[in-house]
Amino acid sequence: MSYLSFKKLLVIDLKSKRAKEIIFSDGLNLIIGKNKTGKSSLIKSILHTLGCEVKFDDSWEELINLYYLEVSNGESEFIFARNQKYFYIKTPDNDNFETFITYDDFSERFNTIFNINLKITNNNGESVIPTPALLFSYQFIDQDIGWSNIPNRFPNMSHFFEADKMSILYITDTLPNEYFIEKEKKDILKKKISAQEKNNNEVSGFLGTLYEKLNIQEIGSNPDIPIHEESILRLVNEINNTENKIIDLKKMIVSEENIINQSRKVLSIIKGNIDELVKDIKYSNSLPSKLVCPICHTSHTNEFPEILGLISEKDELEILKKETRQHIKLSNENIVNYQNDIVVLEIELEHLKTAIEKLDNQSTFIENIKQEGVLEMANASKELLEEQIEILEGMQLDYIKLDQKVKELSSKKITSGLTKSLKDLYHSNAEALNLELASPSFTNFRPSLKNYSGSDLTRAIYSYYLSVFEYNIFNSTYPFRFLIIDTPNHQGQDEENLLTIYSRLLYMSTLEGQLIMVTERTTGSEDYAHVIELSDYRQVLNKKDYINNLKLIENLDQ
């Protein structure tokens, strides 16, 4: 079966023209280096490139502005890149990078590549696609926060409902895709039922108000209406027409306000681009007339035509900025005109109502017309409510059927198999790590950690992550068979505990997956691992890796 494997990581500082390249292999990878050699930041860069929000040191965030990650999935190779909030993907069938401005769009494409057919519910009850941050929550132990709880919760997965439970059920292949499809239908239907109930209550309340006006319990036949008087009918029609004109004008005001809001957003983007061009022009003016490439020694001109191109682009943006401001000005003028028209119409409306009140003192005809309108409205509302009640009953019946199906697909018999398997693997790993209390109670497929502390807590968490890693390899079709471990800070960790953590590496290196461990010390498994050594204190980037990847970096920078 095909599964994702990390092949190459490249982190780049475009300003200083330095980079760091890390090559990975299948099986066990060890990144070894003393404190402050960039180990943790490099390993977090893998997840950051895929959109998982990790916490870097401030200096790292300021230093690195481009991330590049090569992965394989069976025979196919993919490239992922990230520059701040922009994501890029290059697939085998495309020579160019696809660009994604939002994390949701990136996640949707990512899931398509790896055949992740899953929809889950967010905290607003909406059906959404899972992000890599959710999918990878059981495959990374963070040095800073990962050794105190299970699982590692990336900040950008908190909006998912029951995220920890849903992700473990999916990544272990415990529940079939049909479960998630039917659960999505159920969640959507539940939201629709809630909206329908609210709508029915509003119609019912409105109908009750109409009944009170008519002073009746049920809608019967219409009362007799006297012969219409032409003058009163004319006033009623004029009032209706005037009120409709006011409503139309208010809609036009809302439309103009939307135009203004959109124009302001465009104006903000234009201003930002102009600022960047001004910086580029100043920078170009500060350079000599001839520039020599440090690699190929080719001379390039930095003369007036090149700078003129930047100035021309800036001038075009200035024109666009002026036009956008003119659009905003025109919309504001339209709003003022519409508001003035509304004032005139409202005055006219008051005059019409006053005229009707005078006629009302002379005749009961108006009341009869009102009574007729209320009666017609009540009849229509009653028919609507009956239809909506029938629709709601049908939706509730469908919900009961879906709920039953979801329960059958996620029965205790099915989920208890996962709990038992994880318990057995956990017990095996815990025993190998000399951990007492090796059979704690499990809740939502995770062990209780309340009885562990100190180095025992570290080993308990380590045991569980190894168990999920093993389970996926032996029992799951899940395409992400990797585990990234940033070992606990060695300061305060006793030698025996660290040796115990290292003791499972030899066995894990025999599994068909990819395990990456970051450590300050040798582990005893180096002969069976791909070893990456870091030695430069606070100097993880270098010129050599930048030059070796120059063509790739230039393509990415474009």
From TrEMBL:
Name the UniProt record assigns to this protein: Rad50/SbcC-type AAA domain-containing protein
Keyword Coiled coil: yes
Domain of life: Bacteria
Keywords linked to the UniProt accession: Coiled coil
Coiled-coil regions listed in the entry: 232-259, 328-412
UniProt-listed InterPro entries: P-loop_NTPase
